[in-house]
Amino acid sequence: MNENEPPCASPARPRNPPSSLLTDISNFKTPRRSSVVNSNFSKSPYPHFFTASKQTPKSSSSNFLRPSMVPSYTSRSKFATSSRRLKAFELQQSQSSRKAELTREKNLRSLAKSLTVWLNFLFDNPESCGCDPFENDSVVGSVGNLGKGKRDSGEVLRNSKAVGVDTMWRSPKRLRNLGWYDEKRSETGSSLNGSKYSTLRESLKDVCSVDDLKQRMQFHLSLGSCKEIFDVMTRVTKNIDEGRIKMKQQCPLVTDFGLKEKAIKALMSYNQVWLRLGLYVIFGGDSFLSDCEVNSDQEMAFLKVVISKQFFSHEGLARAYAYNKMVEGLYRPGYYEALGNVILKRILLLALIIDRAKSQSCLSLKYGIDGIDGGSPLMFSEKSSIKSSHQLICEFLPSDVMHGEGNLLAHLVIIGYKIPYQQSPIVEYDFRVRDMFDDLQDGVRLCRAIQLLLHDPSILTKMVVPSDNRKKNLANCRTALEYLKNAGISLKDEEGMMITEEDVSDGDRELTISLLWNIFVHLQLPLLTNGKLLTEEIYKVQGMEQINQIPKSSPLEMLLNWIQSITRMYDFKLESLESLVDGKGIWFLLDYYFRREVCCPCLHKKDPGSGKGPQSVMSNTDYNDAVQNFILSQKLTALLGSFPEVLQIGDLLEHNAVVSNQSVIILLAFLSSKLILKENMEQLNFHKLLCSSCQAQERKYSRFSCSNSEAARNEEPDRENGEDASKRFKAIKAWWQDMANQSQNSVGKASGHTLQGSLSSKCTTDFQRETAATVIQANFRGLCARRQFRKKMSAICFLQAAVKTWLSMKHIEAKRNGLRHYEIQAALKIQLAWRSYNDKVISSILIQSYVRGWIARRMYSKYKFSSVLIQRYCRGWLAKRTFYLQRGATVCIQSAIRKFNCMMSLHRHKHAATEVQQLVRGQIVRSRLQGASSLCSKLDEGVSRLPIFGMTKLLHSVIKLQRWWRFLHSQNVRRKSAILIQSHIRGLFARRKTSMKRRYIVMIQSHWRGYLTRKASKAQVLDLRVRIQTSAANIDDKKRLMNKLLSALSELLSMKKVHNILHICETLDSATKYSDRCCEELVAAGAIDKLLTLIRSASRSIPDQQVSKHALSTLRHLARYPQMADELIDTKGSIQTIFWELLRNKEEAYFIASDILKKICNSHKGVETVRRLPALVKRLQALVEELTRKANIEKRNAKGQNGKEKSERRLKEATELLKLITWR
């Protein structure tokens, strides 16, 4: 079988109708687990899968036959023929199965690439996909446009993608109290200009000018934020000036190079936009707000130099504290302390300004992702490890820099300096999809796509980012599937298999693609296809009246009806959406819409071959190659600029066909959104590009007639745009005609072409493709540049119109307030003369400054070149000197090492010789001693005793040596033991210090979290209080708490079910716990007798013990009040009942009864009543003795810590109660 031949037709089930959403995806996988199987599966006469058998069946000829049963020659030949045919059939079956598997794999890869392109296009251009993140009037407006309505600001946002440092997030409710204009502006401005901040002005005189600071801050912050910053800095500067917050002596940030580099690195962790803004607010200088590339290496080097030279130094202080102004680096005492205070104020002011500006302009996560859906740029760079303002302050001002500060932030929070902003990990997440099956496993990109398609940002608050383990991946995938399920999207594939979060997290290819296709069909397709417009378009194409209503159907069926109505005009029958794989339907669609929009007569000439109507581009070359059709269609739609490349040209050329019909459906959906809404038709209409020369005269006339209008400003860029588009289209047309001619020539010519001819045609085609791609890229870049230019021009026109409007309003107000006209006119003349004079002076100064700057820069460049040359030679000389020194040092080290090796070998030889000598001498001495002892008895008394004296002296020397060696050994052992003990003690001290710090940190965190919780719940408490008061005022008397409690108490003893009694007791317990009035009413209603009766009637079962516990707890709440405690004492049998519960319980009821008896014994009457019961007091004493004995036994036993604690607690309660009874 040929490789290019389609596989043989195998029996299969009848295909589903075209309306099925997942017609072809069902063949992409083999089921891996049990699922819902179609009930008609067993009834179908056809197999579901046509695959080769894993085990080839054996033919009957291979079996052993007895000689008597051997068939004849004729039967054997027939059997051999059948066996060969069976083997051929099995071979064809295996090849067919293999080809089907390869086809499914290609289809899977093609659809995966198309879905990847769609997801990337959705993340990059959500507006082009019909996803409007601010559809629900959620608005981000600039600070200067707060006077506009919500919808106006939202329109500005949608058109300008307001992500910047001068924008502020607004909630869906209109903010009416922002305080920028009229009375609030004047009041806040007067408060900032008053004498309230005189101390701040005096304290910040070495840092910056407060007036200039306020003027620069008002451009980027609201006046309320400015006032808050001034209030906080007033308290902070007061603490710094009074010495409560200060650096160590000698200012380590300036004198210690390592700490200075660390501080600069901490500041550079800011995003360059925010760092430049903060430096501009503090130091001024318009160079910080330049339009050049912010993140370039040159700009980063510039910021580092500014921080090093301006942030960590002060020229005024250096001049004031200098010993000699001609000598740098010599300062009087106090300079570094003053410089440290200045640096402290600068960094705290910078961090506070940036934190408030970011907090004001950031986008809350419940409305979208900050920096992507709106808001402002990231506050910290993605590569930095610092992600919060607190962390920045800790890195910049560690304990090594500050004097007497364990935790600087705790001190700053006490005085009101709060910088709460923390950068969320989700704003740094890269949503671009590269490998779809791996990138979707964490579930984050899937949740982002659902948020855009459903316009529901609440899913962002439920995501877990970063998702760095399987548990978090499953949580994100589960959240995404829950939202899809709530949106009514099916979580099953075509075979009915359920798609779970484990399938997506594990990267199951077939199920993941099925899920994405369901999302595209149910969520993306309705956004791209407008049902009303599409229905009207079908009416127009078919020439029908709207009386004949088209039945409502799904978006896919509407797309099919739409393209079928167009292809019928070309006498082309399109059966279903699967028939679009040949590319003709898409080509007819483009040809119809492009030709319908053109009005040039040169394109409406009749077809010479037939008089059917206007000539189509398709009629020139009736090209039947699907690959070339789709390539041309993809290139033409790419002229739009905002259109996804759904069909990859490389895949089309690789597979020589469109593999997946779902990819064509995605392309058709995006084409419908562009063609039906008629977006960018001037660029899309390539027929008009063919006849651009026909309209030259008309453009010339229109340009002459509109020369005085505002449209004449944009006419020249439009004309250039049309010429560029014409060039691009002509390049594409030339490539298309060349491909068509090559295809026709290859069919008509014989198959015997030479290798040289095919290579030359291929080179020509490649060259033309490269030329067309180059022209397309160049013109597309020009188009982008012109679009940017037009945007800037429109912004400039808008600003000019606003300024002119403001000037005209000012002129009208001046006319209305025309009192004292002559005096004002004279004053205006004087002011005009003075301003003209002042302008001349300023102009001259400006010219002089520019000239002097040019001279200074030229001198600087000369000095820089000279210094670089000198440094080059000096560094070369230093490098040579260093090399020579290193070489000499290397020689010295080598000689020393060699000398050391020689000495070590000498010592080893010497030590070996000494050991040998010791052994030999010892042997000689031992032999002498033995000889002397044997001869001693034989010698006479007059023989000399000199050998004995020498032996004694030798023994004494040996003993001394042994003592010295033992002393040295014991000293070494003692030294090692002391070192070990010291190391353990130091480790103990370090662990204690660490645990103490940890406890302090935990305590501070707990207090801070408690404060945040109380602060967050304050509004909720107030709301609940108002709601309770409102409900209490409107509630029926029968439903009031008091009446319900009294009715429940009256029915308490008549209840028969334990759970009802338990519910009433729990209600009485909670009510008497918080309300004294409830206690009074219940006592008046006879609650004490009923509760005691209930306690006496309780058995030892668990439900009855729960009832008894709640009844005792209610009595404890009643005994808190003296009057009710007297009522309890006077009740007959109350003391005995409570004592009995104390003596027979060991759990929680024991302690409740103990509390009741304590409250009773706090009064004289209660003590006297208890003393009248000596038997119970005696039982209590026995209980104390028993618990004491048990506690002593448990102290000796190390096991059973929990039981020991309970026994000690019971003993403590009983002892205290006994003391109250006996001592009062």
Automatic annotation (TrEMBL):
Q: Which ranges does the UniProt record give for the ARM repeats?
A: 1086-1133
- Give me the ranges of the annotated region Disordered: 1-28
Q: Where is the Calponin-homology (CH) domain?
A: 402-524
Task: Write out the annotated subcellular location.
Answer: Cytoplasm
Molecular function GO labels = calmodulin binding
* UniProt KW keywords: Calmodulin-binding, Cytoplasm, Repeat
Give a Gene Ontology cellular component term annotated to this protein: cytoplasm
Per UniProt, the ranges with Low complexity bias are 1-13
Q: Does the keyword Repeat apply?
A: yes
Which PROSITE patterns does the UniProt record give? ARM_REPEAT (PS50176), CH (PS50021), IQ (PS50096)
Question: Does the entry feature the keyword Amino-acid biosynthesis, yes or no?
Answer: no
What CDD domains is this protein classified in? Answer: CH_ASPM_rpt1, IQCD
Sorted alphabetically, which InterPro entries does this protein's record hold?
ARM-like, ARM-type_fold, Armadillo, ASPM, CH_dom, CH_dom_sf, IQ_motif_EF-hand-BS, P-loop_NTPase
Q: Give the protein's recorded name.
A: Protein OPAQUE1
**Native species:** Cardamine amara subsp. amara
Lineage per the UniProt record: Eukaryota, Viridiplantae, Streptophyta, Embryophyta, Tracheophyta
